[in-house]
Design goal:
By secondary structure, the chain is α+β, with helices and mostly antiparallel strands. The chain contains 11 helices and 10 strands. Helix 1 packs antiparallel against helix 3 and helix 1 runs parallel beside helix 4.
């Protein structure tokens, strides 16, 4: 059930939260245009002025709430898929019906991020249980951190700093930045699978990615052993989808591709225009034909423009290591960027269909 937002200046708070989540301004305007025909301006600054003048407009606040909810459910996520049999998914759905959100520091402000206390990490906490038909979305909030770095050349620094650190060319500083993340567990009774979604994938690397599923399953173990036990199973290996996507010209437009040829040459190609498909780019097409199209891709980024196969623009990336080409060929997660949960859902269905 959608929570009523009572916080003062909620529309502006939603705007700032969407900016923090790097929502595309033009896509936001398009979504808002479905509820009112007002001119929102051409920038975040002009939009802020509009919101201040319409802070009491219930339609605008309500729509901002809906857009923000869609963004925390979708947005940019790293995703793991767990395929289940009907008996297991039925048991999990029964357990999900009994789940209740925890009282926590996130409770009073949710779905908006908390305003204070972002100075230390907080483990994932179940803050919402959303039921949509036969499916469930479990929302977990946490406070995580990443290191933001800034480099200074020797000539940019004053004498005091130079004397303190001695002889050097570049000084690199690090700052720990705390942020609120919204991680999701989608229980898809309609598709006999569970989707585990990690928020802000660009702020997580290496060991963080390996440990993330464990943290979510551990948090769920306090609520439901049936659901948490899924963490003991292995997610779907999506490595094979990389080549399948490359070979299927109807599966979006390729923006970026990394591959190896049979003679050991390593290539990295990237399109500068979203309207072009790398598969049909003349240089790539000629090179691929020269080796009888016998290439081994290990990383791919695809865009689905609005009106191609889906209702909204969606980006899909599968990123692996070249070492996987001579190893077990394993990849257990991928990334999707979508303004809506429906777009995300459709892409996962399409990806599942080619595995």
């Amino acid at each position: 059930m959608k929570k009523e937002i009572s916080r003062k200046n909620a529309a502006l708070d939603f705007m700032n939260a969407l900016k923090e989540r790097r929502v595309n301004f033009n896509e936001l305007k398009k979504e808002l245009g479905t509820v009112c025909s007002a001119k929102f301006g051409r920038s975040w600054e002009e939009f802020e002025k509009f919101l201040k003048e319409n802070s009491s407009n219930f339609n605008v606040v309500d729509k901002m709430n809906m857009i923000f909810m869609q963004n925390i459910l979708a947005g940019k996520k790293r995703i793991w898929i767990y395929s289940l049999n009907e008996k297991t998914i039925d048991e999990i759905c029964r357990a999900s019906n009994l789940l209740v959100a925890e009282k926590s520091i996130f409770t009073d402000s949710y779905p908006l991020p908390i305003l204070h206390n972002k100075h230390e990490t907080v483990k994932p906490v179940l803050v919402d249980v959303i039921k949509e038909g036969k499916d469930f979305s479990l929302v977990f909030c946490s406070i995580r951190s990443y290191k933001d770095s800034v480099e200074y050349e020797y000539g940019e620094l004053d004498n005091e700093v130079r004397m303190k650190f001695g002889d050097f060319d570049t000084l690199k500083t690090y700052k720990k930045v705390y942020f609120q993340a919204y991680d999701i567990v989608n229980i898809r009774r309609s598709r006999n699978r569970i989707e585990l979604l990690q928020d802000y994938p660009e702020r997580s690397h290496g060991d963080d990615n390996d440990e993330f599923p464990v943290k979510i399953w551990n948090s769920l173990s306090f609520h439901s052993k049936e659901i948490a036990n899924i963490g003991k199973t292995e997610p779907e290996n999506v490595f094979g989808a990389i080549n399948e996507i490359y070979m299927n010209k109807k599966f979006g437009k390729i923006l970026e591709l990394k591959f190896r040829t049979l003679d050991g040459s390593i290539k990295h190609e990237r399109m500068t225009k979203h309207k072009e498909d790398l598969r049909e780019e003349k240089f790539h097409e000629g090179g691929a034909q020269a080796v009888d199209n016998k290439i081994m891709p290990y990383e791919i980024s695809v865009v689905f423009e609005e009106g191609m196969q889906f209702n909204r623009k969606v980006d899909l990336s599968l990123t692996s290591s070249i070492k996987n080409l001579s190893g077990r060929r394993e990849l257990y997660c991928f990334e999707i960027t979508s303004i809506s949960q429906l777009g995300q859902f459709e892409i996962i269905n399409a990806l599942e269909g080619i595995l």
